[in-house]
Structures are given as C-alpha cells and as structure tokens.
Design a protein that fits this description.
This protein has 2 domains: 25-53 and 103-143 and 226-306, Rossmann fold, CATH 3.40.50.1220; 70-100 and 146-219, no CATH class. It is built from 11 helices and 11 strands. The chain has helices spanning 26-39, 74-79, 81-98, 105-115, 130-134, 160-170, 174-180, 197-201, 228-239, 254-265, 292-302; strands spanning 44-48, 119-124, 139-141, 144-151, 157-159, 184-186, 192-194, 215-219, 243-247, 270-273, 286-288. The protein has a 6-stranded parallel β-sheet, sandwiched between helices. A 3-stranded antiparallel β-sheet has the order 5-4-8. Strands 6-7 form a two-stranded antiparallel ribbon. It is elongated, with a radius of gyration of 20 Å. The relative contact order is 0.22.
Length: 306
C-alpha cells in the first residue's frame, strides 16, 4: 500500500472516509440475480470507472449530479506554459486530496472476486490506485496512475510524493492560501477547480531535476493515446474471459468502450452496472442502474466458486 501523510488543512474538501456498501434494493436484487446467472460458472473481466470511487470521496466526471468539468487536454498542456502552470497549481491541490482517499466496499469486493479466482483481470479507468490499495493484483491502470510523474524530455519517472515536497518548497503556504480563498472542488484525475486566478498565476512550476524538462502526471490526458501494450493486455483479459462486467463507467471515451465492443463482437455477455446511462447500453446483455459498491459486494458474496 502507498503511504499517506495526515491531511494538512483540507477543510475546503468534503470528508473522505469510505462509505459502507448498503444492501441492494428489492428491484435491484432481481436484476442482480439475473446477472448472477450470466456470470456463474465462468470467469469474467472487470472494467471499472469513476463511479466506483465516489464512495471514497472522489467525485466523478459524468455521473448523476456531477458538476460540469472541462479537463485539460494533452494538446493544451504541452502547448502553453501558462496552461502547465494552471494545471500544476490545481493538481498540487487535487493531489493533496486524492492521496488521502481510502478504498471502499466496491474496491474490496473487486479484490475478493479476484482472490476467489473469478476474474481474468481488472481494467480500471481510474488513476487513484485504490484497487491496488484494496488488494487487487492483476490490474491494468488503463489511464495511468496519479502517484507518479514523468518527464517529457528524458522520460524519467518520479514519485508524486517527491514532487509534492519540491512544489511545497517552491510555493510555501500555497495549499493553505488556496483553501482559504474560497470553494475548491477536486476531480477524479487529481485536478481541482480553484476560483482565485491570481493565486494560480503566482504558482511556480517544478522542472525535471535530471534534464530540466517538462514534468507531466503519469496518466493519459484527454486527447492522448493509451500505450499500445497496455491496450493489448486489456484485450487479452477480455479474450480470456467468458463475460465482461463494467462497473461505474459511463463508457463515454473510446478507451473503455472499445473493450465492450470487442466482447460483444465475439459473442461474450456484457453486463453493465452504473448509475445513469452509458455509451455501451445498446451492447449490454443486462444493465443495472444501481450503486456499484453494493452490487459488487453482493456478487462477490453470492457468485459460486469455480
């Protein structure tokens, strides 16, 4: 597990303790029993999205009630130094929130499914590393990981914890001033929305200590391609599976939707559990509009061993 330091002055953020999974409602239970019938007797691949981490205090992008967000694109990040300053200032705040998050019951259920031998693998669109913290092992972090940064010049990687110390030295008192300035809202990719433009403009960005190059969070931005070897590993998990289960993803971006299309093309059942519509609903064998944590917890307890 990664080490977390106690939060420092994080009064601008919502409380982070994980929410315990509630029992499924009666109408949800009927659909879960149908899902149970589809998944029983074989192994399946599990694809998770931001909806799984909301019970850990991490907001999602597109779920019901989510505030509109416009994440920075890769092209914006590399195109302008002002964009990088704005991003790193917001990331410094968002990271200090995200690093305090703890796995919830849905993450624990995913780990239990794997430990019972029911998964061919776990593909997550989240960068929060909570699946690994909960004990999952065979995980593909499809969009990367928030706890590392990479230099775009020399390609060296550094821990985000190390960079946090550097940024705090370059910007003493920045976090405290940011949280005192007004509303601060975190995002699932360790970004944050901050209203004080002057505070953002004062932020000093760190450079690569080895070559002086541009540092970037080690995850896939909008407009950036997922590494080919990572995608191929995910396809292999789906190919080895008897079914594909999607939990907590709207499947809005093609990086996740392609695996749904791949499974459906090869005649594998596709099960979707998500609050609200998804882009893959038309390909689903069964769709359950319900909380992800309680649904996965029920399945982890009820699916028979192979």
């Amino acid at each position: 597990m990664r080490q977390r330091r106690p939060g420092i002055g994080m009064t601008g953020f919502a409380s982070l303790p994980p929410v315990a999974a509630a029992a499924p409602a009666r109408d949800e239970l009927r659909v879960l029993q149908d899902i149970h019938a589809v998944l029983s007797g074989g192994r399946f691949a599990l694809l998770t999205g931001a909806g799984l981490s909301t019970d850990s205090g991490i907001p999602d992008y597109r779920g019901p009630g989510a505030a509109p967000r416009a994440p920075m694109t890769y092209q914006e990040f590399i195109g302008e130094a002002d964009n990088r300053r704005r991003y790193w200032a917001r990331n410094h705040i968002g990271w200090s929130h995200l690093r305090r998050a703890e796995p919830n019951g849905g993450h624990a259920a995913a780990a239990r499914l794997e430990h019972r031998g029911l998964l061919t693998g776990l593909i997550t669109q989240n960068v929060d590393r909570l699946h690994e913290d909960a004990g999952s092992i065979n995980v593909v972090d499809l969009h990367g990981r928030f706890d590392q940064v990479v230099c775009l010049g020399c390609h060296r990687r550094y821990s985000r914890t190390l960079l946090a110390g550097v940024l705090e030295e370059l910007n003493p008192g920045f976090l405290e001033r940011a949280l005192a300035s007004g509303a601060v809202e975190a995002a699932p990719d360790a970004d944050a929305t901050v209203e004080d433009a002057g505070l953002i403009e004062s932020f000093v960005v760190a450079q690569c200590p080895a070559c002086g190059g541009t540092l970037k969070p080690d995850f896939v931005y909008f407009g950036e391609n997922v590494p080919k070897d990572r995608v191929e590993r995910c396809y292999a998990m789906v190919d080895d599976a008897d079914a594909l289960l999607i939990a907590g993803s709207s499947l809005t971006v093609m990086s996740g939707l392609r695996f749904v299309r791949h499974a459906a093309k090869h005649g594998k059942p596709v099960v979707i559990i998500n609050r609200g519509q998804t882009r893959g609903d038309g390909l689903a064998t069964i769709k359950l509009d319900a909380g992800v944590g309680e649904s996965l917890s029920w399945l982890a307890g009820e699916l028979p061993s192979l």
